[in-house]
């Protein structure tokens, strides 16, 4: 019960970043180069979750081609994971940190088969409530 209340309090401090918020573009522009390098192509994002708390931000996005099409992950560095069945779809989860006024990607994972970002609060010191996915 107490743990649930602590998570709820942490979530209250994390704020979702909406479509009209100028921070949205800044955060996505900070994330985009890392994902483009990883996938070997230009991308745009479908945003599932974009949230900020203090100097930290968490993104759950689905990359797609600049034309709006699905990424063929069999043609990326993730091809072997796709073939082996250890690639769980196009979802990307990322942790960003603001340092000296600039957002930097601290970590990201593409198509994880587990909750790969669960360790990020311990690993990087990010607020645990920031990383909680909300269910619709």
Automatic annotation (TrEMBL):
Protein name listed in UniProt: DUF4864 domain-containing protein
High-level lineage: Bacteria, Pseudomonadati, Pseudomonadota, Alphaproteobacteria, Sphingomonadales
